Amino acid sequence: MFVEFAALTLSLSTLYLFQTDVPVMELKCIGDATEVALLRCMKALGIDVEGWREQCPKVAEIPFNSVNKYQVSIHKSNESHILLMKGAPGKRLKEPLLDNRTIS
């Protein structure tokens, strides 16, 4: 369940879900090819892509960039928050993530 959550909430890609008569793997989409493939896979497995995103909205983000080599997003889930990170493992483990900064 966590893999689905991470794949759906970290992805910046979008599937055009209004295409009701199109096979999942042929849905039009925008975004990174890997992220699109993950979203198509989740949709093919019957997972409600938009429902997940509505249940756990993003409240803050550190976007990916070539210097940091990671992306961080914080999502509201029930009465708590979940921090998700993706990127280069070497960079993630060597440096403090937030460094006492406030994310807005």
Essential attributes:
single chain, 104 residues, alpha+beta, two-stranded antiparallel sheet, globular
Layout of strands and helices, then pairs:
Blueprint (H helix, E strand, L loop, with lengths): L1 H9 L3 E2 L13 E2 L2 H12 L4 H7 L2 E5 L7 E8 L2 E8 L1 H6 L10
Antiparallel strand pairs: 1-2, 3-4, 4-5
Structure overview:
The chain has helices spanning 2-10, 33-44, 49-55, 89-94; strands at residues 14-15, 29-30, 58-62, 70-77, 80-87. By secondary structure, the chain is an alpha+beta fold. The chain has two domains: 2-54, no CATH class; 58-94, no CATH class. Strand 3 and strand 4 form a beta hairpin. It starts with a helix and ends in a 10-residue tail after the last helix.
Helix content: 25-40%
pLDDT below 50 for ≥5 consecutive residues: which ranges? Answer: none
Average residue pLDDT: 76
Number of strands: 5
Number of helical runs?
4
Compute the CA-based radius of gyration: 15 Å
Structure class: alpha+beta
The description of the largest β-sheet is: 3 strands, antiparallel
C-alpha termini separation: 28 Å
- Principal-axis shape equals globular
Strand order of the largest sheet: 3-4-5
Q: H/E series, N to C?
A: HEEHHEEEH
Total domains? 2
Q: What proportion strand?
A: 15-25%
Summarize the structure.
It contains four helices and five strands; from the N terminus they run αββααβββα. It is α+β, with helices and mostly antiparallel strands and 104 residues long.
